[in-house]
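Okay, can you check this protein?
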Amino acid sequence: MIVASEFASRSLEEIKELLAGGTLTVYSVARPVTADHAVDRSGKLVAFTFATPAFGTPSEDGSEVASFVADVVNASDVGTPGFARAVTADGKVVADFSAGPGDREIKFSEVSFSANAPVKVVKFKFNPEGGWPERVDYYDAHPRPGYSLPKVR
């Protein structure tokens, strides 16, 4: 989880409370460096609306029990999830979460999404601040014709 600077001093429980009635939007890869940056190069794949309260008691394996208004939502586009952005009910960005297959904070019923196909969140966990599984040199990478990708040392 990478928390927006406005909410960086909040506890995990306070962040969970902020998300009640908010939205969790799942995007394809190429997430911004921080939650304070706009999403500019990622396609919106699906959006879930958090219920009130947004989270129940964590399960035995430590994952959160996220509550949504609708458990299953149809994808709006085709793609593979890369990250999810959570915002409050009034639209303030709270945090970005890693999403997709593998060791991610949010896992779905499908590895990739197809337009109008059902999607369900099957696991939600909070990793410590900055605990993303990706390599830091991939953050905010925007491959463009004629320009090389970041060099790995």
Summary: The longest strand covers residues 44-55. The chain has a mean pLDDT of 85. Strands lie at 2-3, 23-28, 44-55, 66-68, 72-74, 81-87, 93-98, 106-108, 118-124. The first helix runs from residue 12 to 18.
